[in-house]
What does this fold into?
Amino acid sequence: MPRQITGFSNDTVKRLRALRDKKARRAEGLFLAEGLRILAEARDVGRLPEIVAYAAGPGLHPLAAEIAAEAEAAGADVIETTVEILAKMSGKDNPQAILGAYRQPDTALSAIDRAVAPLWLVGERLRDPGNIGTMLRTGDAVAAGGLILIDDCADPFSVEAVRASMGAIFTQKVALASWDEFIAWLRAGPGQLVGTSLQTDHDYLDPSYAAPCFLLVGNESQGLPEAYEAQCDLLVKMPMLGRADSLNAAVAAAVMAFHIRASWRNR
It folds into this structure.
């Protein structure tokens, strides 16, 4: 049976609330996911939370109750609580009716099998967790293998990134590495490294892309360092027809990813 919690000072409430902080997520090895849609996406790919909290009441969706029951049967700590306490946990004034704490996956490059997908997304020094979550969602949409985050990026397991991923945090592999680690790993097997850059004359519509293709997008404000561009197999740009000189990083990744997929289909 679910535990009932009605007090803000409860240790589990404090523990879940702490998962909004990166240091706590690292220490616990857990991250928060909010909302029925995201928890349902997780369950569909075989992922159940280790802790589930939901707001009791007649308005609870049957699927939420089903997920909570499955998680409890698998050994999860299931908590029935109030909307006010859920708001405390999630940091939102209008929280979702259910949230879960999930075990963080292995983020080592060695855990990635490049052969499972023809396309992989790579982000370099991405500082906006919303961009990271959106890139994960794009990766899912184009059946990419996952997202490799290079150097000092925002945490892909932050509440903001998980929320923006709309469940793709559970369908996409995530790896964290330095540039040197990534290049050494990439060159140890097949893979074309395609960078987006303003410092090239190659229109993104023209080249032939080879699988597995690793699509590299740079920092939101600075783009890719010159030294990193020099190690790419191909640099491409998307011509800007208005006053803007570039696209948002996540938008650029989406445009490129769908074009690469379309070029393979048309070929």
User: Anything to note?
Assistant: The longest strand covers residues 98-103.
